[in-house]
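thread: overnight batch results

M.L. [08:02]
morning all. the overnight job finished for the chain we discussed friday. pasting input first so we're all looking at the same thing
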Amino acid sequence: MSDWKYDAFLHTFSVLVDLFFREVHPRGAWRVPRTGPILFVAAPHANQFVDGLRRVGLLIAEKSVHGFIGWGSRQTGSVPVGRAQDKAKPASGLIYLPDPINDPTLIRGVGTDFEKEAEVGGMIFLPSVKGQSGSSIDISKIVGPEEIRIKRPMKGYVPMRQLTGRDDVDEEGNFANKELKGPKDGYQGTKYKLAPHIDQTEVYKAVFTRLRLGGCIGIFPEGGSHDRTELLPLKAGVAIMALGTLAEDPDCGLQIVPVGMNYFHAHKFRSRAVVEFGAPFQIPRDLVEKYKNNERRDAIGGTLDMVHQALSAVTVSAPDYDTLMCIQAARRLYNTGKKLPLPMVVELNRRLAVGFSKFKDDPRIIDLMDNVKGYNKQLHYLNIKDHQVAYAKMTLPSVIFTLLYRIAKLLVLSIGVIPGLVLFAPVFAASKIISHKKAKEALAGSSVKIQGRDVMATWKLLVAMAFAPVLYNMYSIILSIKVYQDHLWGYVPAWVPFWLVFIAGWIVFPAITFAALRFGEVGMDIFKSLRPLVLCISPSSSYNIQKLRERRVELSEKVVKVINEMGPDMYEDFETSRLIADPFRADGALSLAKEDGKTEPTPPDSPHMSRKNTTKSSQAIPRNESFSNIGAIGMFATRPPSRSRSRSSSSGGGFGSGGFPLSGFTSLDSKEGFNEASNKIRAAMRQRGQLRRRKSGKMAAAGLMSIFGGARRVLTGSARASELFPQTRPDVDGEDCIHDCDSCTVKYPRHFKVEESHPLYGNIKPWSTHVLVATSKSDWHRHVEDERGSVMEAFGDASKPSNGRLMLSASNMPTPNNRPDYSQPTTILVLPAFTIIENVTPPAVPSLITKYISRAPTTSDPLEPATLPKTISSSRSSVGDMLVRPCPHRVIVLLCSHRTRDARCGQSAPLIKKELERHLRPLGLDRDLDDERPGGVGVYFVNHVGGHKYSANMMIYRRPNAFGIDEVQRAKLPPGQEPQLVKPVVGEEDTAGDVGAGQCIWLARVRPEDCENLVKYTILQGKVVKADKQLRGGFDRTTGMISW
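M.L. [08:03]
and the structure it wrote out:
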């Protein structure tokens, strides 16, 4: 690696980064030592190759070292690293644990050939499940073609569930039933991948040599890029590099510098980023001695703990995306003063995230997070941003004037934007299409990515780098040809040479595009501010914004109150070390430390990196940028000093001002060090202040939105959520309807997450008839029509009913022989007819559809008795006529348990069923699968019904006034008294007068704690408890309303 190649490459890409990102703020760059070997550990790796633009030799995945990326990595001295996951390939057969209790390291295969496909030292990779990466383990011994041993037992619910098929596994991977030694009966195993042994000896030697010679190495210790909100488990390589270097040369002075890559919408064009350098630390000598004395596991584990803690101090981690959004909303609600610089925003987010992690089970935090989520949903509903709520304070004339003024500005700016937008549109389109395609490919090949967004910025840059020069060259050629033909319609003088026009095109067209970029930023900011102004003018929406503003004020006070109450429990010097002033403090001042020696608040379990012995004179500098030890270390980062601007300054930013008041340092290494530090600080702060004042007139952009996005949709005739079913009200149904069950006996697993931000209501396909096929099992092929030889397959091949769409579901209803045997006749349940048909075979399905289902009542038919046959003959059936009888249940509850489609359904359905039966049992309404006593509630598992991400999905079919208490007002009953249930029975002689189901209430996001009220109000009385959060749709034949 030569310096001039590195500098040229870095200069080129720094220009591209400046074009892609609107702001890139380094923070704490002065912490980087000027001399000596440094191991930079950066996380999270959220932007693939864009993360790597630092002045160090980076470790790069070997699979990426090809083409342009390979050439660039060689110019910057990167070290290629082979990774097992990159070489993993699907292997033949299935694998399982034959004895997970007594011999958990023995893996047995079915149809495998380990002797040919696997190797000792290689790895086994299990399939990933939605939201969780697959587990991997090293191979220690190959016993035979169908048996291998792994180095250590698998841990955790998912891998043990995959390798045994058993349901009695807890979150740690332990089994409840110790008597059952093997896997689940009939379980054949799981698919898997095998990777060869990767010899990293040469890589480690190259790293050791470079570090011992005083060089710098950069590594992303997570092992690969991803788009998660929390750090992945760190790989051991970073610890081996540090310990191996120190083992060879204990006095080399190796220091590890954590680097936090904090992005704001990393995959989007013109987004923002903060690169934070943490305090450097060294590996303790006792860990190095352990490493040298073959106690490597302890040494590597201790080093990884230190690295993880250091990275946690410079990154913002949250357990999921929704929590991260709530944390950011809480930060905005807490800061009601001036706009904070990005580094301070990141610091506030981090402290709030640490606080949430520590107090997440505190009732105050739970209640606050629920309120913040509700506030975020209201913002999403109105399609506005939090800072735009303030428009509600403006008077109507001010709003109208501001709207007209901004529209005029937008029209003026469009003159400079439209030409460049048209010229560069092909590049925008190509980069978007290709980046989305590559994101899908990366997602398909990764076990840790969620949406694959981490590769999008890289591909947008690469496509633009390749396509833009070709496009500008084409424009210049077209311009030159036009000048050659007719001197551009006579506008270009005849003396202008042809070659000059071509060169001028290469100057003019990029200049037009760049001007469009600069004008477009301002114009986009103005355009996005128009919608809230329009909403403020509209009488129907201005009231909503006004109420939202009032709610924001109340919520802001609540956020500040909770932080002020819990902050001292988190940080001992909470009051004296605030990043911003208490928004509701009487004097509005920012408290500063009164004494020397104060320590910066450090999250629990952080490494020893607190800011100790801070001098009094440095307290005017922000907490995150103390220069007490500046005489001994470098001031600026090692990036080439190509341009002086705010993004290359190491200053952490202030509270909306251009500089910080600095008093003289009272203690430094020397007088010369003091003078040098003072001059550099004053110059940097002066320059930073000038740049910030220049930029103060520009507005921030957050995303394109339509001016008319709030217009109402055209009415379709479908019922609104508030009209379809009656909803519970405390004044009618009592206070219990607003409280979840406090005696719930089951809970979802800790890792169980569902989508909670999308609107639910109306997002279902219409259906006319619903057929449930008894299969005596609770999981099926991905598409039940693929169950060979089954009645479901016959339905898939048969013609459609004449009375509308048929919804087909496989269910765990018992077959006549109680076995999942498709060669025998089975039973089906037809809804909303509420009839059971026995003796059904696949050949009889066409007759069944023609003679019965097409004549059965549908979801949109009036609530009237239907004349239907009691027997159905079929010339193709070899087992006789099909027999029809009424379903004995008053209510049918269907739960999606299709774990082949989504593991969450396989987890949620049994738990919800158990909790429902607990509440139905005291009422005498619970029914086992074979229990057909009339007047009860049947709870069945079914296959995919749509919307697994909203698990648990529940469909409730009810007969009209199922238990005779639909009109009862519980609030008017004496305390402790429950309404008397009426359980009418439909007998064989009443089949002709049976009207079937009156309602189907389709719910989602059902949790165990909801079950008590679901039984009490929904199953018994047909009322919806949480319509805004759980109602997906349905029908009510008594009122003639449907949701589609």
